[in-house]
Every structure is written in C-alpha cells, then in structure tokens.
Amino acid sequence: MRQTQLFTKTSKQLNQEETSANAQLLVRGGYIDKLMAGVYTLLPLGRRVVDHIEQIIREEMDAVAGQEVSMPALQPKDNWVKTGRWDSMRDILYTIKDEAGHEYTLGPTHEEIVVPLAKQFIQSYKDLPISIYQFQSKFRKELRPKSGILRGREFLMKDMYSFHATVEDLDAYYERVTAAYLRVFTRLGLQDVTYLTYASGGVFSKYSHEFQTVTPAGEDTIYICDGCRLAINHEIRHETPHCPSCGKDQFTTAKAIEVGNIFKLMTKFSEPFGLGFTDASGARLPVIMGCYGMGLTRLLGTIVEIDHDEKGIIWPEAVAPYRVHLLNLSKDSVQADAAYASLQAAGVSVLYDDRLVSPGVKLGDADLLGLPQRVVISQKTGTNVEVKLRSQPDSQLIPFDQLLATLTTPNV
Amino acid sequence: MRQTQLFTKTSKQLNQEETSANAQLLVRGGYIDKLMAGVYTLLPLGRRVVDHIEQIIREEMDAVAGQEVSMPALQPKDNWVKTGRWDSMRDILYTIKDEAGHEYTLGPTHEEIVVPLAKQFIQSYKDLPISIYQFQSKFRKELRPKSGILRGREFLMKDMYSFHATVEDLDAYYERVTAAYLRVFTRLGLQDVTYLTYASGGVFSKYSHEFQTVTPAGEDTIYICDGCRLAINHEIRHETPHCPSCGKDQFTTAKAIEVGNIFKLMTKFSEPFGLGFTDASGARLPVIMGCYGMGLTRLLGTIVEIDHDEKGIIWPEAVAPYRVHLLNLSKDSVQADAAYASLQAAGVSVLYDDRLVSPGVKLGDADLLGLPQRVVISQKTGTNVEVKLRSQPDSQLIPFDQLLATLTTPNV
Question: Which class is B322-407 in CATH?
C-alpha cells in the first residue's frame, strides 16, 4: 500500500478526551476513530490488525473442534425473560421496542440464543460433545465507557459455547480450551504478561477463569501467586487466602486487563430452555455447558498498551497491519519504487511511504505506526539500504540487492 | 469435516412459516436457523458459503482500490438529524434511548458515519479520490419481513462509499465499480440472470442503478430491454418509455431480486456535514460522492433460488461450503476413510458422510445439501468409486486410485 493512497493520516495532536495510551496511539496512528464514547470505527490499518488477531483465534478454536457460526445481534426479549437476565442484566442491556410492541435487546452475550439453537440439533449423547463459536459485535450499555477501546459499548468478541454429556467431558474440554487460549496469547506476543486467573464461579461452579494481561493501564487487580504461574482476581481474594493451584499464600499485586474468560456454565442455561439429551441407557439428562469469551478490540488495545514506547506502537509481527514500512527519503523514487515492486512481488506486505514530506515526518510516523521492519532508502545510504527493527535501537546497512533475502529471513 | 461431527442435521420437515424456496432449503439443509421473523443465524455450513461470497466481493472491491474498514452499528441520533433522515427514514430505523436520555439508531446504511469520518482525512484534491468499504450487519425495521433471508431485519451487507473531486471522476469510478459488480455476479454464477437496471435517482441524479437477478421469487418487477442487456425498474417505467441505454421501446417483464445497488450521491451528504476540499487553484468545493451496496445474506438466498431443483440446492463451486460430498455406503469404512484422508491431504474440501444411516438418507441429504461433487463408495462399486456432479444427472465409475486426479481436474 502506498501511503499517498491510504485513507488515513497520522496526527500529532494529543486527544484530550482519550486518556489511555492505547486510544491515543491508535487514534493518532489512524488505526481507529472514535464515533462516540465507547464506540469506535476500525480504520483500514486497524481493520488489518483485527483481521490478523481474528485469524489466529479462528485457527486455535478450529483446532479444538469449534464450528463457526454467526448469531444475530438482535434478540427477542422472551429468551432473556426465560433465563431471568432481562431483569438481572437490565443495567447493561440496550433495549428496543417496535411499533407492534415487541421488545428486543442487542446481545452482550449469546447464551439465550445458542441454547435454544443447540436444542434443535442435540437429542442423544451421540450428538455430544459439540462446540460452537462466532466473531461478533457485542453491545453493552456503559454509562461511563473509558480506557479507549478496552471497555466499549460496541465491541468485537469471539464467544464459544460447548455442550457435553458429562461434567468430566466438560472438564477435559475446558482444559483443552485453556491451552488453546494460552496458544492465542503466545501467538499475540502476550504470553509473558498474561495470567490464568481464578475468579468467582457463581452458583454453579466454584471458580471461573480469566486471562489477565498485566499492565498499569489495567482496570482489574489480580494477585499473582509467588509459587506458581497462576493468579486470583481481587473479587475472590478475601475468601481465597491460598492459591487454589499450588496452595501457597504469597502473592504479588498487579493491575491487569481481562482479555478472556472461560466459565463452566454447567446446567445454568440448559435448564431454563429444557436442553437435554438421552444417554446410552435411555435416561433423559440436562446438557452440561461451558462458555469461552475473548475480546478482539480489547486485545487490539491491550497489545498497544503492552507494546509501545514514547514514540509509538511496536507491533508483534503476527498482527502488524504490514510487515515492512518502506521509507523513501531520496529526492527521486527510482530505487524506492524498485524496492516496493520487488517486495510486493515476493509477497512481503509493505506500507510504502511515498509522500512528499520531510524525512523527520516520515521517521516519526514510522515510529508511531510501529510496523516491525523499517527500510530506509536515501541519498545517504547510496547503493545500500538501512534496515531497522522497530523493537531494536540499532539499524544496519545492507546492499540493495540483499534486501529481499534479509527481510524474508525471520528476526532480522 | 465428518458429518457425524457436524453441529447441524438436515430436516425433512417443511416449515410452514417459510414460504420461499431459499428459506425452506437453507433451513432444511441446516445452513441457517430462524431466530425470529427476518432474523437468522448462519450455521456452520451457511457461514462457510457466506465467507466465500464475502471473499469474492472483497477481492473485487480491493481491485477497484477499496479500503476495508468496520464502522459501528450503534450510531448517534445527531448525525441522522443533520441529514434529515432521522425523520424521513423513521419507518425503518430501530431506535434506542439510554438512561441519560441519549438516542441512537442501528445503522441500516452508513452515510451518516462515513462522511464525518472522511472529513477528518480529506483536505485537498490530493486526498481524492478515495473509496472505503465494509462488511457489516445492518438493521432495518420491517413489520412484515418475508421471503426467507431475502428481506431481513438484520442482514449482512457490503457497503462502499467513494469520494471524488469532480463529477467526471465519480462517473469514471462508477463505471469501474459497475464492472466490478458484474465480475462478482459472474463469479457467483449469476451472470446470465442478473441485469443492470435503471432506477430512480432521487433529487441529485437522474438515475441510480440496481443489479436485479431474475427469478419468480423476486419481489421487484423489472422491464428488460429487448434491444440491449439493460433493464428498467418498475418505479421509473411510467416515465421511461424508451431504454435509457439503446433507446428501444420493447421490454420483457420479469420478477427479480435486487442483489446490489449503486448510486451517485453527488453532494447530498457532503453538504450537511460540510465535507469539502481545496482544489489546485485554492478554491473550496464540496466532495462528490458515490455509494455501492451489495447484500450478502440476500445473495445467499438468491443463489439458492436460482440454483436448486426439487431435491435440493445446487451450489456453484465458488461458494459451496465444501467442494466434495463423500458418501460411504459400504458396511465398513476402510476405503471411505482412506479416500477422506487422501482428499484432505490434497487440500480438497470435503464433507464426509460417515453416519450410520441408510444409503437412501445419505443420497437424499447429498441432493438437499447440494455440494458440487458427490463421491460414493459402496460394496457395489467394488474397487471403483462413483463420481457425480450435483448439476448433472449422470455419474461415472472411476478406479479408486484415480479419484484424486479426477476431482482436482476442473469440471469433472
């Protein structure tokens, strides 16, 4: 992509409304645009990052036999009355009433839709287990949305729901999904700062689990066990003096962002909808369920919180909108055009800064946008080009004809 | 995908509520599920078809320099008041009011969002032209949704918006997008039955254009010119006695589904939002706009209306959820398992009917589901396998070891 053709431009202006680093950098870089509090547009660069995050999650959900669907955002009130959540979640449900007097909500989650849906296809134990997921915009009334895109009123989620004949089968699958989640965070470069965290389980389970990414920008407080790599959420800290995993009682307090949560729903939603199955002996039993959420726009913001410096974003290669930022600082564009063409021909994704602006502006924007590899072509470098990783301070000069080989070798 | 693992099952039951062939077949095949009138879930098979449609559209929009974004569904009332459409579109806008008294709508279209967004990045003629598109769930109040997924209350659209310095530039781009749309319909197998159709242009343009696919299930009436390959919509038939393209006055009447529409918005939306640019002489001018819609869930239904017979769906290969339906009619699964493994290893997408049900059920479901190529393995075929195109009545027997070569040759 030639930067002269790109829809967006970078901005130097700090936005007074945005107090978080993620929103400042994403807005200034032209990754996202704020329509209103808690509601953002994904601009072309941001859309590319989210596409990469989505594809990583999709691969890992498919690897645990998840089947992708798309459920509606618009949901009938009746389903929510049936689970009691039309009232209990009143504070966060957007509601709509049409001329005919019918009422709807915009789903912040999809148990009320997926359970009656599953009921159509699950009759016997032979139909179990099954796991269904989707990527979808969720809606949640927040009177005071904050923290940029970390807590929004409209946000992109992956939500998965699993259905089992026995608690043992749910337990085993829950472990598989836990491992899949950890693989997602590893691929997103968040593995060192993301903790599997015990949280309140509600009526049906002792614990649920969150995946918490440690950063000063976090709204949650977690207690990281000094004895193992697990944490407990502040909500259960009081009643949980010992680590539920290793039993130790020394913790380190940290601020964190909840980037995912998994929950053993057991029969909480199967019962109100009468979702049952016939076991091998012919007995009728309720289906056992689990649910598994992960916030995509929240992950976008979290990655920026974790991976930035005072100059801008530092994208992990797996999610960067483009891998290479090619900067032409020469007076003519002959050499840079040739480099752009050869990188494109080799299938390397490149953002090419072909604008007629000063070298300082280009170098500053490259740091702000944060693509993993910067390639500078200028009079100064002669027949060489300068290659620099955004994550490293030092650059190196390499002969122009070795550019392709250098960039297609990992970690240069 | 093994059919024993597939979330959905086929159904023989005709649904009394669904009067259209598309909804009957898609629901019976387990492609979609109706949550309520005009609101459907895309099930795993349906999701795969829509993914393929989406990718074809994306490639063609990228080829005309479209840049993909994701704008919010939740939109502030103020933007809609500014264009006068809060009142004029009142009948189709879902509205939401929160505790703080703020009002919102769920976007049935995005001019009210994209124009103020573009204003942030368009200052001079050098920033033009630009073209922005998205795939997104749209919402539209329909008191009597009908025709299955052809006219919904929540539906998936591709909407693109272009911005130009001159009418001539818009005209040229409009022609490019027209050609891109025709390429999409060709790739979807709809080229022979889809007509570029003149429709009412409103105040700012003489005509807009629709893409109408002829089928008895259509809700629109079009008049196809006997002299050229264009049509006119019934809305303008009265005032348009002659074909606007070739001037002839003989038409054939047909029922059709509107699968896309393109519109020269001119300055209709730039003006209320003050979206202007500075030209080369320093003069300030309003930006000229075009918009280009295409309904994805509607295309899903239209393809089924066009491509089905009394037994079920006949998917075009470009959008089929899987390319091959492998049916094991043998008592053991040795040969079928081997065929499944070798097709998967070769990257051929396969749905493998490994269920313990009768041959008649399997053959019936294969016709209902409509995958392009059916491969039958049975005692009867011995060391051969039977290969049949869903679109053709005749099958052929081929040696097992030639299966892969046969299936990877186009149009066997």
Answer: alpha beta
